[in-house]
Write a structure and sequence with these properties.
single chain; mainly beta; six-stranded antiparallel β-sheet; 2 helices; 37 strands; globular
Length: 524
Amino acid sequence: MSGLVTNAAAGHRSRWFPPLAATAAALLLAAASMLTGAAPAAAAPVTDCTAWGTTELQGGEYIYQQNEWNSTARQCVSVDPETGAWSVTESSFALPTNGAPATYPSSYKGCHWGACTTDSGLPLRVDELAGTRTSWSTTQVASGAYNVSMDLWFNSTPVTDDQPDGTEVMIWMNHRGGAQPIGSRTGTVQLDGKAWDVWTGPGASGWKVISYVLQQGATEFADLDVKSLIDDAVTRGQIDPAHYLIDAEAGFEIWQGGQGLGTKSFSFTASADSGGGGDTVAPSAPANLRVTGTTSTSVALSWTPSTDDTGVTAYDVYRDGVKAGTTATTSFTDTGLTASTAYSYTVRARDAVGNTSAASAAVAATTGQGGGTGSGTLKAQYRNNDSSPGDNQIRPGLQVVNTGAQPVDLSDITVRYWFSGESGATTYSTNCDWAAIGCGSVTHRVVSSAGAGQGADHYLEVGFGSGSLAAGASTGEIQLRLNKTDWSNFDEVDDYSRATDTAYADAAKVAVYVDGALAWGTAP
């Protein structure tokens, strides 16, 4: 993820064999190989042409992410889940290098925006790091504009499902085509037998960024001592030693071109100073596991946090006894499910050294019928505040109503209004002009949703701060406005969520989500 990235998407979830079943399957496969003389079949490569797709690598130890966060152009990759190798097979980006890159396809280990890899050993406090090393072999091309960079994220707490609030450390193996780090060059340093240029500057939302740029460049790191760079950043005052290293990523920030770039292999390890003792106390079991929303293909869950003597770092979610995924937060959305099907869920908590809690009490959930329409206890209402569908702004009025019998945490709610960007700039500015609950309590951004359907290649996502929405209550009116950064015109006539209502009315094409699960409306 680039120092300019503002958000990311949720991780891919898949069924895993339980240990005994996996062992039995391996024995049967081995026996079949002995009888036939054939070697076991390797996992088939995965082709991904989505903007936010993810693929588990090497049994979930790493995750590959498309992370095309600043473009709607087509990006395709071929990923080998077994070896972790991947390559960009299709891309033709053409952004200027004096702005943000189009994309950061990359592998990561740790917890990225709440989506965690398996048994990563992270997070770890910086002042407790004993060693951090990486090996990374790449394929680079002689055209385009890009960097070959690792991204280390640090946060003030062990877990977060949002933008980390600490430091971003970028390690540039190589670059070409005029790409350069954020900020300015502030020094040079010799670390792990290599000469580095040091760049410092603020990230897009003000977090610290320090970049180490390898002089002369390379195509691989062989057992690089990453801790030596972290220690140097601490000495320079760029990393708070009480913060936590939460994940490590390796990939390519691409401005122009990109086809042919790839990772042959990537490994990252981090270990903690034992300090002469050992933590053997497991966290408490998660309590109050509950279903917060369902669709035909997903179930959203939340629960009360577990407690631990050193801190809970992750929660493993089990569907019908099989691990469905891991999260660093107290909510999880299980996707890719079958319509009209009953499932049973439990959750276990883990701490930094791997102590695992007992399972929570089970909760049952049944997915809805097909069709992609939410069926929760919230609804969206919409008013068209813009009488000119061909001008350079979109101005929806929105409000959320709680039709249920229980209050809902506002921080769990997001609203999506889909529209089409047509031609012109692919970046947007958003504004809250007035809100009954105060614009300071409302968040807003534009997210690409290429491929979602006619009139829906982007959506305005609206969120809320702390507090709750009481049963039967409404957020009240929220007047919003968005424009392209070049102020070119829209053609709103065929926008998916647009209607002509001049008074607030229920809006079936404006979706409300609770903890990421569709609770109202029909998505395109």
